[in-house]
Amino acid sequence: MAFSAVSAPARQNTSRPRGLTRVGLLTSGGDCPGLNSVIRGAVLKGIAYHQQNYVGFRDGWRGVVEGDIVDLTRAGVNGIARQGGTVLGTSRTNPFAGGGGVEQVADTLARLGIDAVIAIGGEGTLAAALKLSAHGIHIVGVPKTIDNDLGGTDYTFGFATAVEIATEAMDRLRTTGDSHSRCMIAEVMGRHAGWIALHAGIAASADAILIPERRTSLETICRWVSEAQTQGTAPLVVVAEGFVPDHADDPHSERGLDSFGRQRLGGIGEQLAPMIEEVTGIETRATTLGHIQRGGVPSAYDRVLATRLGTAAADLVARRGWGRMVALQGVEVVDVDLRAALAELKTVPGHLYDEAAMLFGGPGITAIA
Ligand code: F6P
Known about the structure:
Residues 1-21 are annotated as: Disordered. With 369 residues, the protein is of the alpha/beta class. 36% of the residues lie in helices and 16% in strands. It folds into two domains: 8-157 and 298-330, Rossmann fold, CATH 3.40.50; 159-295 and 348-357, Rossmann fold, CATH 3.40.50. The protein has helices at 35-49, 61-66, 102-112, 123-134, 159-180, 195-203, 218-230, 268-280, 300-318, 338-342, 350-357; strands at residues 21-27, 52-57, 69-72, 116-121, 139-143, 183-188, 208-210, 236-240, 284-288, 324-329, 332-337. The site of 6-O-phosphono-beta-D-fructofuranose has 12 residues, from loops.
């Protein structure tokens, strides 16, 4: 992944003018619309207000472990906020695996004259940041995930864009479903939490919303589907990839593990389709949205949120808030302890699911047990 918008690579540039704090930025884990807005926000604010200068690590922790950097200048980040993906590249490299670790990271930072690191990432990235910070590395975090499941922050950037994409896709599935009188299933991302399914499901008036937090039997799902058809609509079901039906023990996974040892999920929609068809007699099709939800330009909301988090990260470095991450609480951007933020995933609370479930299932057939 090339960094086209900046000046020539400065792979071994260790120069640091006096009085300046040299900050290294990295984007790690799955990409997410809004990453470039964070980068731009931090670079513009840090250079203009905090006597910081910036480099970017290429491809997440790989760039940290190997010391692979590019200069990030004010001119270089012009215009990147509206671009999807990350101009720095990302990877699921684990800094503690394969010869990395605290010493390797500390050596690289010292060799490159980097005083502080801003790590933009999800659960795995921020857990690594916390571990490094506990060993004295000057590091702050910026929470990132389209799944919106990180603690300590009300919303993560990228989530709103993913919900827009999923909603539009479901609206499209609805019209083809209506034409053919079929049941349509949209599978969305959401490994541990069903935020995307919940929000897109409400927005697209889904007839069933299936999330990891709420076990549901095939019988109940089929009742909702049949009821929707009775009421004259082609049933539309949204299912999060991490949903576990009553009859299963684990989320559907047949693609092995990623480098953090997590199961690669996906396929529950395809698995449910023939079961629903058999029980209800309604022809059923499944569509997995997959990485389409992570690609493309960020929404205006996500650009604003990500920019605010980026500028706040530059402020946090200036305040030497090591081991903390910036976060959205209400309408304010604050900073919170990484350990506290990572203590628990932010899953969909039961009452929010119940609010949505009252809208489907029909009278007397609600989703609420
Ligand atoms: O963590 C965010 C996420 O989008 C999950 O919902 C999904 O399981 C995972 O990333 C897939 O990531 P990849 O296929 O890029 O490793």
